[in-house]
Amino acid sequence: MRQIKGKCIIVFLVILAFHLITAGNAAAIAISVNNGAGQVANFTSIQAAVNAANPGDEIIVKPGIYEENIKVTKSLSIVSESGNFSNTIVRAANGSEDIFSIWANGVSIKGFSINGSSSAGIHFFGAIDCHIENNKLSNNGCGIDLYMFSSGNQINNNEISDSLTGISLGGSSYNNMSNNSISNCGNGISLFDSPNNKLENNFVSKNSEGISLSGESNGNTLINNIVTLNKKLGLHIYETSNNLIYNNYFNNIVNVEPEPVSRVNIWNTTKTTGTNIAGGPYLGGNLWAKPNGTVVYPEGVRDADLDGILDVRYNIEGSEFIDYLPLTESKPNTIIVSNSAGQAADFVSIQAAVDNASPGDVVIIYPGIYRENIDVPVTNLTLISASGSPADTIVKGTSSEDNVFYVTADGVTIRGFGITGPINSPYAGIRLNGVKHCYIENNQISDKYNGAIPNPSSGSIPIVGNNSSSNVEIEIRPESSDYNVLSNNIVSGNGISLLLRNSSENTIVNNSVSDSSYGIWVDSSNNNTLNENNVSYNKAGIYVKVSSGNMLNNNTAFNNSDSGINLWNSGENILSNSTVSNSNVCIVLHDSSENVLNNNTVSDSNYGTWLYSSSNNNKLNNNRALNNKVGIYVKASSGNALTENIALNSTASGINLWDSVGNTLNSNIASRNEVSISLQNSSKNSLLNNTATSNIYGIWLGSSSNNKLDDNTASNNKFGIYLKNSSNNGLSGNWANSNSRYGVYLGSSRSNILTNNKVVSNSEYGFCLMDSGNSSIFNNLFNNTNNIYFQGTNPGTSLNTTMTQGTNIIGGSNLGGNFWATPKRNGFSQTRPDKNGDGICDVAYAVNKECIDYLPLAGPRVTN
């Protein structure tokens, strides 16, 4: 024992001598601290060592329990000798003061257990370039507190627990906090007015609040953190902006709580190759979960290309915050199928792979011809061809009395196959029965598939009689199935290519459907979306029957022999931005009400758009009807509103109402038709602000009564406005000009009222009245070489009203008769005096024995 003590004294003297030698030139030295018996050390307290040390020295603290509060005002490294915080413990001597208070730059504290202060375990005061690593801090007011513009510090690999706040930054920037574990605190990590810090690879769990960013805490980066099971919320955002938050795992009852004044933050990085926090192959956004396992994303969201990133953006917690590239934590098993020699595989048949699959697995099928009928009862199963091409991976059903694919589980994906029959109804190439969130994509389906895209048929098309699907094949058939997606499929067959029955909220997008009796048939199915499909060479392209609330947008339908898009007894659907051509009828509504047709183009057909059989209260806005026999045809239907449509080059009528009541035509343009706007046997309709030009007949009323024609323009036609056998109509504010025969013609049409119209520059006559008595014609402006022509008898016709004070059509102060002018300025109203200046000529204008304008309007005052 005496020898050991002697050796220790010698070692101590050597160390002391070395310290004395090097102290003079300020070289860094190691100073030891030990407060236990039996170990040689320079000091027994850490504070004493700090006081004695010079900047740059290292203080090595031997295992033990040190009860003190330490103030560091020099650049020092303070480390535990063991590197193990479990045996080197620093406990507050005064529980109301900080345990370590740091007032100098370049301080390192490593390997301690630090606890027992109601203030802070480690407290920075404007310190820079410090390193706090591998410590355990517990039961403090705050574990680590960076304050007063503390910047450039590294806070790494610390364990912090059971404190009011784990790590707090106030007014501090450019610090790095990584690989820390913070748990069971009030706030895990809290930043206030602290910008441009980096939080990386931290584990923040079971606190009241996980991470909080508030005040001017802008431009921070949160990456690779796990924020989980925090009781109140995971991340609190208040007032801050431009924080980059990606590749974190959030799993809390409330993951993010934004305050109303929260600003714009970034919740994902650009999609980049690299292993993400869920083990996926790409970096993107964050992984969002709930502790009870419920799905935070919208139901049915998936990762179609298996890149580890979901296919839709996520509005975080329903807020305005958007993660555009949310991650998925699913890591599916992969099952290989091949029936070709030389390709290693788990199974040689698709059905065998399905039978052995678990929910969420991916079955990859290599090229070949698979002769089988496949039942799919496995949830979230993905069946994809290895090549992605339906040309080389063909599934051919072996029984015509069975479905080729029969799906009875939710979340199934079938992608990239050539699928063929023969198939008899009610079976299908792909049948979905009572399922949700399935995806049918990039398949080619036909009753006679040969691996090549079929050419459109130029011959006759087999017809499905009486709207029945009996004895015909069906290629894709969702039935009683909701929220599924059918996209980018090529489908053809003699019967029904795609049948949707009793199914809602499905999306049918970008499919090509041809050579069928019915291309897409939506039957008793509501609130589906049909977008950007191409339906051609069918009997009926898209057929919607007893269905409502569907959206049909941007579809193309051409060369369908009967109709391009057909609504039968269906209401409240929206058809927009579609192009339909070369059919008997492009768009037809039968007994279908409350629909909206907007911005469609219909062309080169007998009928562009046809509403009939009580198709009421529909809205047709901004549609174009080009080169049809009849552009827009409304028959036996009421309450429809046609607004700002264009009808051009119709061989019969641009817009035609037949046996229809109470419709409104507003601001439509009809040009280069035989008849631009035609009413036949129709009453109580309103024609407002329409333009009819370059036709034989601009506006035609035949056997139509009680209609209102206001502010329309009929120009450069043969006949501008033409009424035949039509009574009790009101024409007001119309402009009929430059028509080659008559501006306005009334033939056998009684009791009509014409007022405030301008009828000018018409070649034969401005106004022709033939056997049309009891009409009231006043306050119109006529300016033609020949203003008025009477034929037959027109008893009871009046050319003026009672003189009444009010602004007339040429700005005079009284209403009375009409203004009679000629282009040569020698008309009656232009040459007769108005000596008292009341705006009425002093003499009556006798047009003929039957019709006299007793109060013709006067032009500029003529006194002699």
UniProtKB/TrEMBL annotation:
Residues 61-214, 365-545, 546-702, 717-843 form the Carbohydrate-binding/sugar hydrolysis domain. InterPro entries: Beta_helix, Carb-bd_sugar_hydrolysis-dom, NosD_dom, Para_beta_helix_rpt-2, PbH1, Pectin_lyas_fold, Pectin_lyase_fold/virulence, SCF-Subunits/Alg-Epimerases. This is NosD domain-containing protein. Pathway: Protein modification; protein ubiquitination. It holds the Pfam family NosD. SUPFAM superfamilies: Pectin lyase-like. It comes from the Archaea. The lineage of its organism: Archaea, Methanobacteriati, Methanobacteriota, Stenosarchaea group, Methanomicrobia. It comes from Methanosarcina baikalica. NCBIfam families: para_beta_helix (TIGR03804). The keyword Protease does not apply. Keywords: Repeat, Ubl conjugation pathway.
